Amino acid sequence: ETGVTQSPTHLIKTRGQQVTLRCSSQSGHNTVSWYQQALGQGPQFIFQYYREEENGRGNFPPRFSGLQFPNYSSELNVNALELDDSALYLCAATLGGGSRSEQFFGPGTRLTVL
Amino acid sequence: AQRVTQPEKLLSVFKGAPVELKCNYSYSGSPELFWYVQYSRQRLQLLLRHISRESIKGFTADLNKGETSFHLKKPFAQEEDSAMYYCALHGSSNTGKLIFGQGTTLQVKP
Fold first, then answer.
1. What is the average pLDDT value for chain B, to the nearest integer?
2. Best mutation target, B3, B23, B49, B95, to test chain A (most A CBs within 10 A)
3. Which of the pair, B53 or B27, is modelled with greater confidence?
4. Contact state of B44 with A43 under an 8 Å Cβ cutoff
5. What is the dihedral of CA A91, A94, A98, A99, to 10 degrees?
């Protein structure tokens, strides 16, 4: 096991609502990345946090935001949900701060927006 | 533009047959390429990376910069190899951003 957990497993929201997804990793995982995986697609990079600061962002609007905490947990917040936000959201933790270190993925949170 | 293309959505082979999962990339610098695998009801996990130049579970992948390809190969497929395979690229930026292909489902029939 990688020690990366995500909650909740599944979530149903309606358009316009806000959602917070959580990720927890083990000691030493200083870097966390979030990905969105739409049905039938590969994961798409949303952003990365290193030592509680955003350290790179993909092509996602500002209504996608995140936080990283000193206890190696992280949150992904999405405001003003749209139908197209329905997807599997993955977090990936990396030991240390090396940008090319192996990323350990969590099991994902399945978000459905109605 | 940075891009990873996996042209096959599904590859179906019989047990014992050779397997080649195709991956082509577009990147102007020196990329680092990976293969990730997701078995049924399991999380995404790293299978191999090109800089390691190692064989994992009998799989190998060679980076061909001339053809911008990083195909995954195994000489004799096993039923337990059935899974979703993703090719991914890491650019030279200082972030851990991975660019994934769309994935190929490998189905190994008995």
1. 92
2. B95
3. B27
4. yes
5. -20
